[in-house]
């Protein structure tokens, strides 16, 4: 088999066979297929696409390129969630405890962030002493004991994906739906869950800006999961403005805790409950979504969901006092008010620009080597649809410098003010099963 023939076949719009896809993935992973030929195939896929079966086969080959995690030692069904990312997305810290409070084990492996704000692990490290690196045996032991663990990925999961993603990043082939879907699902499938709920964001702050593209990606990933024997559904949720009111690391942990303690931050609460309810239905805990949703609301009210978070923090060596008393979380030294330039309504917030403003403060990374400042971030006071007066404070910059001109300028540019109140957008656009 020759790589040039595989490239030519895809260039001409043909469907690749399982043998051809496996030959490519194995060869590129072990170095026998050079970057220039892999780049040519990726570009052919970018223009010609892949069938659902081709995409599933590509995903399966990427899973097989490395280790897979055996979670059979965890008692009960294993349900995972994945978010395509967004600004202010602290849903994992709410969903994990919610699902665990229903008696369903949550074995969550997450990563760090490069860009706007920290990733899940960076945010957790705002809690003093909390360990996110642990052996797979300890990981399984903790889940069996407390029903919940959130840790860094262990082992060499889907190395083909890591290598291919780096190549896609420099060959303008990142935004190909089959390649995105295969990349995401290869890591999820290698992580060992029986069922997966995907939170696919759509809007200005999402990777997929249009609802049409978000639906296409969600459908592709659900098809991959089903093809490879996993119960998979996707929730398409709105990311046309930041999720919740806090953007940063410690302040996102704070807001997640407040939700678990009963605070009604509507968008964050509804999206978290929706994802968690679908997860416990897939686990067989409830027959219907409505029953599951209502039960989880009850677990917020009775405190059992918050207690699950506390037990996870204790089990992973974190200072639980910082969860019990949120003023003990890292605090920035300065609070800078950002004021509205005119009266009216907030008609739009560019979530991506808000995230960049937070990065300017030190809440995220511009390069892999950058350190994250857990204490800094942004607190929004006004969101889309809210009325503001001229000169009214609509956000706070939480900074460790006395001025933050770049961040303030970026945040101001993220907001659009108008004279008419905009129509309310749905929080959940669609469920793909």
UniProtKB/TrEMBL annotation:
Its EC number is 2.4.2.2. One of its GO terms (biological process) is pyrimidine nucleoside metabolic process. Residues 345-418 form the Pyrimidine nucleoside phosphorylase C-terminal domain. SMART domains: PYNP_C. This is Pyrimidine-nucleoside phosphorylase. The keyword Cytoplasm does not apply. Belongs to the thymidine/pyrimidine-nucleoside phosphorylase family. Homodimer. One of its GO terms (molecular function) is 1,4-alpha-oligoglucan phosphorylase activity. It catalyses: 2'-deoxyuridine + phosphate = 2-deoxy-alpha-D-ribose 1-phosphate + uracil; uridine + phosphate = alpha-D-ribose 1-phosphate + uracil; thymidine + phosphate = 2-deoxy-alpha-D-ribose 1-phosphate + thymine. PROSITE patterns: THYMID_PHOSPHORYLASE. NCBIfam families: PRK05820.1 (NF004490), PRK06078.1 (NF004747), Y_phosphoryl (TIGR02644).
């Amino acid at each position: 088999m020759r790589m040039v023939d595989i490239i030519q076949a895809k260039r001409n719009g043909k469907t690749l066979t399982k043998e051809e896809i496996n030959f490519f993935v194995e060869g590129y992973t072990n170095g026998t297929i050079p970057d220039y030929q892999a780049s040519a195939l990726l570009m052919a896929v970018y223009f010609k696409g892949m069938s659902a079966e081709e995409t599933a086969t590509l995903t399966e080959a990427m899973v097989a390129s490395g280790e897979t995690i055996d979670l059979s030692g965890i008692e009960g069904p294993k349900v995972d969630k994945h978010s395509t990312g967004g600004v202010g997305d602290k849903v994992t810290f709410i969903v994990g405890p919610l699902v665990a409070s229903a008696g369903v084990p949550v074995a969550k492996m997450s990563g760090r962030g490069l860009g706007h704000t920290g990733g899940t692990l960076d945010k957790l490290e705002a809690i003093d002493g909390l360990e996110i690196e642990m052996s797979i045996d300890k990981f399984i032991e903790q889940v069996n004991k407390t029903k919940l663990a959130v840790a860094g990925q262990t082992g060499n999961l889907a190395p083909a994906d890591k290598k291919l993603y780096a190549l896609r990043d420099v060959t303008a082939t990142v935004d190909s739906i089959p390649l995105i879907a295969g990349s995401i699902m290869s890591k999820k499938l290698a992580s060992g869950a029986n069922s997966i709920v995907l939170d696919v964001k759509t809007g200005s702050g999402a990777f997929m800006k249009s609802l049409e593209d978000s639906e296409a990606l969600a459908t592709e990933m659900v098809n991959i999961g089903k093809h490879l024997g996993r119960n998979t559904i996707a929730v398409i949720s709105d990311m046309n403005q930041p999720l919740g009111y806090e953007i940063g690391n410690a302040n996102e942990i704070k807001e997640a805790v407040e939700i678990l303690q009963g605070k009604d931050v509507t968008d964050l609460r509804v999206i978290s409950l929706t994802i968690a309810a679908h997860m416990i239905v897939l686990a067989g805990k409830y027959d219907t979504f409505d029953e599951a949703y209502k039960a989880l609301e009850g677990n917020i009210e009775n405190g059992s969901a918050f207690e699950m978070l506390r037990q996870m923090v204790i089990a992973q060596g974190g200072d639980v006092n910082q969860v019990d008393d949120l003023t003990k979380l890292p605090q920035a030294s300065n609070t800078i008010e950002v004021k509205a330039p005119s009266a009216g309504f907030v008609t739009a917030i560019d979530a991506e620009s808000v995230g960049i403003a937070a990065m300017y403060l030190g809440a995220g990374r511009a390069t892999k080597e950058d350190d994250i400042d857990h204490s800094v971030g942004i607190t929004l006071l006004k969101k889309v649809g809210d009325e503001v007066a001229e000169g009214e404070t609509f956000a706070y910059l939480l900074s460790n410098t006395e001025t933050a001109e770049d961040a303030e300028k970026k945040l101001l540019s993220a907001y659009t003010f108008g004279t008419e109140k905009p129509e309310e957008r749905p929080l959940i656009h669609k469920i793909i099963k």
